Amino acid sequence: MKLCIAEKPSVARDIAKVLGATMPKQGYMEGNGYCVTWTFGHLCTLKEPHDYGPELKSWNLIFLPIIPKNFGIKLIPNKGVEAQFKIIERLVAECDEVINCGDAGQEGELIQRWVLQKAKCNKPVQRLWISSLTEEAIKEGFEKLKPAEDYKNLYLAGNARAIGDWLLGINATRLFTKKFGGNKAVLSIGRVQTPTLAMLVQRQKEIDAFATEEYWELKTKYREVIFTAAIDRLKTADRATKGLEYLKGNLFEIVSFEIKEGKEKNPRLFDLTALQVEANKKYSFSADHTLKYIQSLYEKKHVTYPRVDTTYLSESLHPKISGILHSMKPYSELIAPLLEQPIPKSKTVFDDAKVTDHHAIIPTEISPSGSLTREEKQIYDLVARRFIAVFYPECKISNTLVEAKVGTIPFKTSGKQILEPGWRVVYAKDKTEVSEKEKEEEQTIPNFEKGESGPHDPFIHQGKTSPPKPFTEATLLRAMETAGKQVDDEELREMLKNNGIGRPSTRANIIETLFKRKYIERKKKNLIATATGIELIDTIEDEVLKSPELTGEWELKLRKIESGEYEANKFREELVQMVTDLTRKVISGKAKVFSLHEEPKIEDKKTREPRIKKEIPGWEEINCPKCKNNKLVSGKTAVGCLAFKDCGFKIPFEIFGKKISDRQLNDLVLKGKTSKLKGFTLHPEKKSEGILTMTSDFSVNLI
């Protein structure tokens, strides 16, 4: 018997269907010589300090740094996890061969390897590596299974990352909390979290320290075209007034007139970060939400694997492009011109040298039906249009540069006209905000003759200098990708990705962690460092902890481990040394008082026994309330029946615009109703609060 282990039940069902393993069992599917089971994401985690010694449960400086001789793993303490692991453990013991069907990425490899390690697997292991969950892709993947050994370096890199995060996170958090927290707060430090916060704090300080200055510019209108004086901005109104008087006394003269034809390159295909950036700019989606929406589209088979950091396709995909375009019926009008001739095999799209484990995010040949949420449709539209746009011709433009003078004062203007829209046709209906500068650049400029002159209408433009812009999630993601360097050029940005901080799949979680810790807050689209976040960064004197460049160097080493160019043990030794040096430095340094910028809590005079939280049963322990024959499973967007296709029962995590917690969902399933809740934003009758109830037909109502 061959045992397939997927990362979640929904993926396991897709694989089981293709393999013919259609007989449902408790915790797995069976048939045709296969058993297909699943994890729920992480079943295992690195052991905690107290697992290495009970004395380490206490947060005490005398025990730091905590450096386990050998790092161990353990099951996540959860009844559902423990029950599912026992099933996997038994199946591993009974099978002849294991096929690792985890997500085809570093984290997916780590999740599965830890489970197999915990299950003491000594059977041959093969690896399924696919970029989409369509039936064709799964069949093709099983025809091309590879030995697990081929992915050993991927696992070593993932393991080194987890250990590195543990070493720094556990030790630095305890170190700074005990030294500076004053028993008031946990000061959370992380390998990627802290330099990300440092970038936000640095920007916040630049904004706070910025002194706005007024300035004046001389401008004039000649033949309906606005020209700007090519001199330094004037610091006083008096000088501007004198300049204006001078302009009024002299004629306008054209010094040079030049038109250059050029091209605007097509946008690149999306990697995860670029998609998150675009979704934040266009729809104000957080990075975390975008990741959830694109992951859901992947699991529904509409797009390829999303947790990628390349904007290229492998050359072997070229023959399949026409078929994918043909299947995208809602976009047929835009696609028709592309199918009139062969799809070009451009190096800006197809380049094997730029593709490692996966290619860029593109649509699959399975076009979405009407079952998508509004947000999923918006994300799919971004991916679909970008996929179409890369195969259109380049946009042809003409750039006009005009130099002139009024007396001795030089003037200039420039203009840009689109001659042939090319790929811009795909985005013709997009409404974008145009800045004043862009409006001037897009002004239509007539033909001028060198030496021509005439009267003109001079005027003064008064403005104010602007502080640096606060980070949005879009600009912060770009800064994380380039380790804080401001890079607009796409090719240069591609080169810097290896030194970015965090991975595409983890950056959204890092930002969310900063929100949860109350180190940053959101004001409209802007991300603002809180007083607590600023004070934490000011407390950390060691640049190693808060430098994006140094963190980027660690990230590069992790990528080198993945490619076999660097030793995982060496990376660990370097981090152990760094943590040891940091501990000595901070313990021997002067303590500061860290103040908490939060509302004080009023203590109840009566001594109360601490409340013991009731443990919520795992979904895998709860019977489906509708069919009562199968257990429930938790997916990315909803909790539903294990046999959902037959039964149809599911409850989404977001109801009427409000995220519902596990405890509230638990009440809804087991009790048929929740307590009174607030914060509903999308109820058809505009209700914002009420009790969620389960109706007789197993839908959800708000009363």
What does this structure look like?
By secondary structure, this protein is α+β, with helices and mostly antiparallel strands. Helix content is 37%, strand content 19%. It has 23 helices and 27 strands. A 7-stranded mixed sheet has the order 2-3-4-1-7-8-9, sandwiched between helices. Strands 15-12-13-14-11-10-16 form a 7-stranded antiparallel sheet. Helix 4 packs across helix 6, helix 6 (152-180) runs antiparallel to helix 20 (548-562) and helix 9 packs across helix 10 (287-299). The chain is globular.
End-to-end CA span: 51 Å
Percent helix range: 25-40%
What's the shape?
Answer: globular
Give a count of the beta strands, DSSP E runs of length 2 or more: 27
Report the sheet-strand fraction: 15-25%
Measured on Cα atoms, how large is the radius of gyration? Answer: 30 Å
The low-confidence parts are 599-615
Strand line-up across the major sheet? 2-3-4-1-7-8-9
Instruction: Output the structural class.
Output: alpha+beta
Question: How many DSSP H or I helices?
Answer: 23
Q: Largest sheet, if any?
A: 7 strands, mixed
Mean pLDDT: 88
